[in-house]
Amino acid sequence: MKIFASVVTYNRLPLLKECIDRLRKQTRKPDKIIVINNGSTDNTLDWLQAQNDLMIVNQENSGSSGGQYTAVKTAYEQGADYVWLMDDDCMPEPDALEQLLTFLEKHQLHGKAVVTCVPHSNQEDDKVCFPISEYPSKRTYFRPSEINNQEAIRSLFFGFLGVLLPKEAIQKTGYPNPHYFIRCDDAEYALRLKKINFPIYIVTKAIVRHPSPKHLQKKILWIDLTFPIDDYHKMFYELRNSIHTLKKHAHPLAFVGKYLPKYLLIATYKAMKIDKSPKNLWIYLKAIFHGLTNRLGKVDIK
């Protein structure tokens, strides 16, 4: 069984070095480590070329989505049975890969499920980077201590933060969408797996550490909304790709009656109340229009 770990990197050499060091020290070592260098302009390429145990793929900066697309495609074409995906700021604990494989073996799920790590915050104790939603109960967990007594959590979503994809999932769903640039590529891929009833398990003893994104929670018109505390550039892709994903995967009535009005509200509130910028409102509405009309890829946002 061949397991390839992959790391997507862009201009974060100190983080990349630590991530690679942690992969090299896994109790179950990956059979190959692939680094997708997304056009780094720092000293990343010089450092990579001095390493003799890495497979290096250099490409233009195509964002996280383009990097993950190349990572999955490269590993699959190289004959991997599994590809273990992460970014350069994802730091796996020494036994993370071993814990994922132990769960698969115990439950005879090789080739039948996607498993992923719990993303612990590297800034706060007992906090996960992203809320974990259980399926089918929809119960949400915010702290690792809430799930430590469980072996795994069945979920519908994962991030590209220590997720282990089997070749069988790739054969059935293809590669991540390379045209999202950043944001939502992992959620869209998970929804494709849902459509073919391919289960996803978050293994509680498999741990990675990652920075926690900043969010603002607000209730507006009796609706609970979450606003990423991002600049307009990142928010553009968040809105565009969310709309594109929901238009593609949600029921048409739910999309028109629920999700589209929700994201219009998020765009308006973020621009006018948080950013305090009418110009940003135009940018966010443009993002929603691009999502509706399938205009993807990297955008020169002005």
> In terms of per-residue confidence, which ranges show pLDDT below 50 for 5 or more consecutive residues?
none
Q: Whole-number average pLDDT?
A: 96
Q: What is the overall number of helices?
A: 9
Major beta-sheet overview: 9 strands, mixed
Instruction: Report the radius of gyration as a whole number of Å.
Output: 19 Å
- How many beta-strand elements? 13
Description:
This protein has 302 residues and is α/β, with parallel strands linked by helices. 39% of the residues lie in helices and 24% in strands. It has helices spanning 13-24, 44-49, 63-77, 96-106, 167-173, 185-195, 232-249, 252-275, 278-292, and strands spanning 3-9, 32-38, 54-59, 82-87, 91-92, 114-121, 132-133, 140-141, 152-155, 163-166, 200-210, 215-220, 223-228. Strands 1, 2, 3, 4, 5, 6, 9, 10 and 11 form a nine-stranded mixed sheet that branches. A hairpin with a 2-residue loop joins strand 12 and strand 13 (223-228). It is globular. The chain starts with a strand and ends in a 10-residue tail after the last helix. The model has no long low-confidence stretch (mean pLDDT 96).
Summarize, please.
By secondary structure, this protein is an alpha/beta fold.
Q: Which characteristics define this entry?
A:
single chain, 302 residues, alpha/beta, 9-stranded mixed sheet, two-stranded antiparallel sheet, 9 helices, 39% helix
